[in-house]
């Protein structure tokens, strides 16, 4: 293949700090911005000199629309792998439309939550769109442009029609290492205690059936331990100081994760990290292994304080398990962030207040209160449609709940916004809590991050 093939990995500009990753787009609640993991993982499949590679993260680099158009035209890409989000859909589709007009021979493939259903309608509506990446863990787009036969995780135009190539759950993958050096920019997470920070994905999707989440509809896949360890070695060699494992459920693949953690301990890896997991996945032995390997914080999806809601939305664990795992993590010395979901159909004010109280009861170090969003291709969206809370034309939505999309039937959108703000004030503005957080800070970097994130949260509550 000629080295003249140019491929652009593109996160479009935006009016806000948009996070369009992993089929879950949102506005950053404060100032945090992880690496665009869809683009990062796709970069593993394209090698120089076969491809001349350019990464443009217009959000991280604060590139305006005007400058973005200029940079793209100057680069003259043959192919673009871009992100698109339901949260920024109006801005994004207008942007890509102009990009296509100015670069008519460029093939554009996009990954994003706004494209995961009704493919025919999407291709009809978005004339600029040539392909939809439905699984960014697979190399379907590279297979397409190189004439390969093993195309999967891709929907694409072909002779006026569109072709769907689904992906399936697969054996552990020996994935090539993502090209992290192209993404070594202005990325940050509120719980990172050193920089630069890298985002690492050891597995894809989630095998659990939570009905409000898109992840259960995607084919779960994991990387081999050797593949993960190779990437971790490169990150250390390149000077990264903190790792964000953005797996939906860290330690889901027990044998592989255990091998990686044991290597980190034996090699004296020395880089701290954070992750997402579930309260029913981790036991005390595994939590201690994670702590010894450098884990400083785990984010758990708590969601509600009522077992009937946990059952209805198929979380498959109980409030008792939540309390037990939070207590174990605290005893071992790992910080805990709980994510909570308010505003599901039929939820009352009393239920939401109970959830806020539960966040304090389990002694979460941090809490993230999100308002339910009827995301595309989920049974939760089907429920919201059935209850008459939305109509099928709803496309623009913010997963973080900065702008409330639906009411509960008992509570209006305005009331939900007020309760969300109350949740943050009630949790974070306790004098005892503030003192505890300040006393837990160990270095100047942590202090700066906490003050900056706290300031942005305060600003959002005052707006």
Automatic annotation (TrEMBL):
Whether Phosphoprotein counts among this entry's keywords is no
Question: What does the entry list under GO cellular component?
Answer: cytosol
Identify the cofactor(s): [4Fe-4S] cluster
InterPro entries from the xrefs? Answer: BchE-like, Elp3/MiaA/NifB-like_rSAM, rSAM, rSAM_horseshoe, rSAM_sf
What are the alphabetically sorted keywords of the record?
A: Iron, Iron-sulfur, Metal-binding, S-adenosyl-L-methionine
All copies of domain Radical SAM core, residue ranges: 192-415
Kindly provide the name given to this protein in its UniProt entry: Radical SAM protein
What is the species listed in this Swiss-Prot or TrEMBL entry? Aquimarina algiphila
